[in-house]
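Comment on both lines for my students:
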Amino acid sequence: MNKLAMYLRLSLEDKRAIEDGGFTQGESNSIGNQRKQILEYIHHDPELAKYEIMEFSDDGCSGTNMERPGMQKLLKEVKENRIRCIIVKDMSRFSRDYIEMGTYLNQIFPFMGIRFIALNDHYDSREHHGSTIEIDTAFQTLLYDLYSKDVSVKVKTSFENKCANGEYVFGQAPFGYEKSRKVKNAVVVNEKEAEIVRYIFSLAVQGKSSTQIAKQLYGEKIPTITQIRKPDKAVQDGKLHTWSEKAIRTILNNRFYLGEMAYGKSVRKSVGSKSGMAVPKEDWKVIPNHHEALISEEIFEQVSAFRPGHSTKRNREKHPLTGKLYCGGCKYSLNYKPIQGKNKYRRFECRKHALLQIPECCTYMNADLLEETVLFMLNKELMLRGNAMRQKENLFSFQKAGIHALKRKLDGYRQEKKQVQAEKDILYEKYALAKLPVTEYQRKAIELTEQLSSLSVLEEEATQKLVRLEDEYQKIEEDMKQIIQYSHIEELTQEVVDTFIRRVYAYKDKRVEIEWNFSVDQGVSQSKIT
């Protein structure tokens, strides 16, 4: 069945307009109103009403780039040829980039055979029959692009003005504070969190390191930031939550606890860009006595060793398994330790063992032995899968033959539909020229319409089956190519790990468990270091 996609987008500016209640444009652009307007349009169009409707939306995303979650999902469906029509409230919902919009309207959508409708712009690509968009539509998209850049400048200016006036217009307040429920854009002390912050500073004044502080907080069962602010998430992930050295250092280095608010720490590279460039610290704009301080300047000075400038962190070599190797006991990642100082051999260490003291924890694992084990398991898995695939060679031949047979069927259905449609056209011509009685015309027209309908159903069923078969065949073919390409692997490189391994678990009893990254039948393998 053909699918129709309705795309909805709400920008940050629209959201602010709705929240402020200052003007109606934000309200009219709300996700709910866009959905209602599009559904009403579909309901009153008999052709569109037959489509299966899919909804894609981005709430609070800029239209100046296509890197939006909902948009990416929509484009994935488009690439896989599952969408026949896209409807938006107006073109600016789809994109505010003049060049990008033109590319999709003039090239991509006509090539893919996708109908594009923008309600408020009175645009329907079917009326253009795949030709280039008219000058008024092109000019409209250019205006959207210019409007977006103008809005960006205004939003930035408004943001800076609010900050300069002492308003806190950022996201969540730092730990120890919360946004005021009485005064808009103000922060107040959260006493429950503030008590923990003061306690952390008091431990640092005693000369304790960030690791020692984290260990003491865990020992005293003091809840972490996640456990306090996102208790549901803390329960769902199933981990034992502990304070990390990084979280402690972040608190001890934050001058917000002195009552200062800093802004202008970064600048956007371009309009719509998600990434920004860091601004030197000396160029930050700082407002002293902005809110109630939790600690004094004297205490902050005493813990100056925790400041970023005094960091002892070194740039270390990255191991291919970094980020994919986890402790089987506590489920936290293992850190790689190269040969350095007292370390006589390369190894992996559980980063949470010192804090959690779990008996099942894999405290450390020899890196050389682990690499050998993973390589052995990988080569064994590739050999087994290669043999299995060779044994299934007849099945693949059968699948390939099935795909060709389905394609021939589809061609046959399409040819039949063309012939029936041609008969229907000739029938109408005879009726229009009074060469055929009304009753005979109606009887034959009904028969031909039923034939077309039946052929359409058969065509759709065959298409869906073909997509499934081709998808399965392609996945198996990809795995086979990888197995042939990487047969007899002698070194554990980053490319090899990223290609085949999803996750590795190391256990205290030297067991190793690997979750594979194959396209078909991922599976898990186990082995033991001897």
The first strand starts at residue 3 and ends at 10.
